[in-house]
Design goal:
Layout (H helix, E strand, L loop, with lengths): L9 H12 L2 H8 L1 H13 L2 E2 H5 L6 H13 L3 E6 L2 E6 L1 H22 L3 H8 L4
Antiparallel strand pairs: 1-3, 2-3
Helix pairs in contact: 1-6, 2-5
Length: 128
């Protein structure tokens, strides 16, 4: 008998919850090589404005500004104003907290939706 499409198994509910647990904005922000270079710059040099960040990079300042906005929106950076300049800095504690939350949620769900292959093999084998 076929299950109604609205009735989800425990595994399906866990898989959906796991995909919700993945912070797409954060993962997208750190997946772009140019943004990784910006993060590296800030790690090495500390708080800086867009002009200083763009100087050693092979991309235009306007592109760096767009990347900074994405990193800021993802919660990886903080920004403060100094006169007319915006100074960007890494939000280490905020970034770590978001990663830890994502890992904790995934850890709680992965056993339900993604058991190890050996567990699946033993489940699929029926005793004789």
């Amino acid at each position: 008998m076929k299950r109604p499409s609205t009735a989800l198994t425990e595994r399906e509910r866990a898989a959906l919850a796991l995909t919700d647990a993945l912070d797409a904005r954060l993962l997208t922000a750190i997946a772009e090589p140019a943004r990784v270079e910006i993060v590296k710059f800030l790690l090495l040099h500390g708080a800086s404005d867009a002009t200083a960040i763009a100087a050693p990079l092979p991309i235009e300042r306007s592109v760096v500004s767009r990347h900074l906005k994405i990193l800021l929106d993802a919660g990886l950076l903080t920004v403060r104003k100094e006169g007319r300049r915006r100074i960007y800095d890494l939000d280490g504690p905020g970034f770590l907290a978001r990663l830890e939350e994502m890992v904790a949620r995934a850890r709680a769900l992965v056993a339900l939706c993604c058991p190890p292959t050996s567990a699946l093999v033993s489940i699929r084998r029926k005793p004789d």
